[in-house]
Fold this protein.
Amino acid sequence: MRGGTSYEGVTEQAGREVEQGIAMTDCLLSVRNLRVAFGNRVVLRDLSFDVYGGNCLAVIGPNGSGKTVLLKALQHLIPYEGEIQWRQGARLGYVPQSVAADRQLPLKVRELLESKARFLRLVHQEMEQVSSQVNLSAEFLSAGIGTLSGGQFQKALIAFALLGRPNVLLFDEPTASLDELSQERIYELVHELQERNGITLILVSHDLSVVYRYATRVLCLSKGKTCTGPPKEILTPKMLEEVYGGRPKFYGHIQEH
């Protein structure tokens, strides 16, 4: 179609890139012909893409399109067909959308972090370093997890994910339940960590303004179809209407930045 980029056009371009292998030496993750199904319900079908070191891949799409399922498959937590190949030396950290844990447990933030540090047999200095990177004060570390606000608890989960020095962080809508100010602070923290530590991000987000500002590439999941490309090519009114079946109500925020 003239005068714009179509959903099919971007998909075809992505296919050509996959076939050519994209002559880059720092391919960190290669996914080919990924298929995930639960019984007769196919969630992901024929999905192929690459992620390169230091980049930020944002995964978008309507509810039920398989975004969380993709993150679980990338960690080999669920059965799948196809190929998921991480480069040797890839170390994954994961920040989930929610945690199925009783926040009323008498557990302090420091104790939460120390439990993982002991499991990984990390030296004490590494936990202190992570706490410093995420700006966790001594008072914060001494607080019970049940007393934390949503944004504070999310910071604790990010610190938890950073233990073990991952070079890849997977974020599943890390600010879904936070107010706008808390969301902004979390995304700024994540972006700062990426720039400072050279971490590769794979980020699931409904906030398209965040995707536009921080993502290197965007992967769209929608009704079994996929498309991938730079934010400026993907985050257009026409493309988003095809992905979401209508212009998302949060599209307007993109134009403010």
About this structure: Residues 1-24, 251-257 have pLDDT under 50 and may be disordered. The longest helix spans residues 180-197.
